[in-house]
Amino acid sequence: MTEPTGDQLLRQLGALGNPHRLRIVAALLAERTYVSKLARELRISRALLQVHLRKLEAAGLVTASFEIGEDGKTLRFYELTPFSVVLTPQAIAAAVPTLTTPDSVQGNADGKEGRP
Amino acid sequence: MTEPTGDQLLRQLGALGNPHRLRIVAALLAERTYVSKLARELRISRALLQVHLRKLEAAGLVTASFEIGEDGKTLRFYELTPFSVVLTPQAIAAAVPTLTTPDSVQGNADGKEGRP
DNA sequence: ACCACCTGCTAACTTTCCTTTGCATGTGGA
DNA sequence: TCCACATGCAAAGGAAAGTTAGCAGGTGGT
Question: Nearest-CA residue of chain B relative to A114?
Answer without folding.
Answer: B45
